[in-house]
Amino acid sequence: MGYYFGVNKINFDWKNYHPKLSVVAKEPPAQLSAVDFSSFWKVWQKLESNYYDKTKLNSQKMLNGAISGMVASLDDPFTVYLPPVQNDNFKQGLAGQFQGIGAELGLKDKQIIVISPLKGSPAIKAGIKAGDAILEVDGNPTSSWTLSQAVEKIRGPKGTSVTLTILSRDQKTAKEIKIIRDVITVKSVDAWVKKVKDVEGVKLDKSLNEEKIAYISLSQFGDNTNSEWLSAINQLSLDINKEKNVKGVIFDLRNNPGGYLTDAVFISSEFLKEGSSVVMQEENGEQETLRSNRRGLLTETAVLILINKGSASASEIVAGALRDNGRAKLIGETSFGKGTIQQAEDLGGGAGLHVTIAKWLTPNETWVNGKGLTPDISVELDSKTPERDLQLEKAVLELIK
User: Fold this and answer.
1) Helix or strand run (H / E) with residue 47
2) Which residues are marked as active site?
């Protein structure tokens, strides 16, 4: 039904509120079974005839609602229909710049939750954390919202405000947080080599101050990630060779909500020998193994990976691939647990469809969906000492011990 209405053009003549309906290209694709649309048209006609406020009858909104309802019937929070505005917002996010609060959202247990607030964003400054549930937006309950509806309501022009009612995992009562929207520019990659004494958030024994570590932070897998990665890693490799005695790399995937599957393979290939298994894609019972496909610069370098409950999708693919191949240990908190793959389709007119086409497994055939990756070394942050990054501290200790 959704496909049928998605490819048809509907024109209305609203004179006297007696619409004349014209359906173009009304024959459904041959592969679709026969569906009786009489009840759909009957409801539409009843609304046109009887609804008390005719100004509310917007044909495009009604059509979008029909398609969204069809998609929602699959009960898959990651298969979504995106009307033009929401589809544009999604594309802006992957392109690395948009206006809003700077938080990646998800749907878990039928709640809108924060998968990860972006570094330096208004959300971070307001105290929003990964795992927070958003109960209301400007006083409107989110319990029946789709993910795309939540994104549309929370995003907005720079300088405007939005009030979120937040319930954190470590709190029993919800609280309201007012956030001023801003322009969010997402830089995917940050990398450096430093002495332990110069690493922000790390306070260790002074005897370790002169030890050197390399660090890579990857915030998302977006349109510019691969080019940013190559530039950063080429420089990092030169710095590691120049500095001498660098103990290894801490790869920070915390609060990385994921992105393109191909990028996950590309990034994993930096650390794995060519031909190593990165991820298994399973569709209709058939499996395909995607393998590292280029010569990486860090295949012999010691690696530790930081994850938390904001690490999802493509970041879980990378973390799982490196651990299963014996290249890295995971430190931090259990990851989000998104084990499916979506394909983005443009439907014309600015609208889009994200449809789940497969599930993915780690090289050892672990499906993380709903469970996440359990770290080898569990470390939680301490709200009493926000100036210290205990997870990063533990990774540094593990790397130089």
Assistant:
1) helix 38-50
2) 313, 338, 342
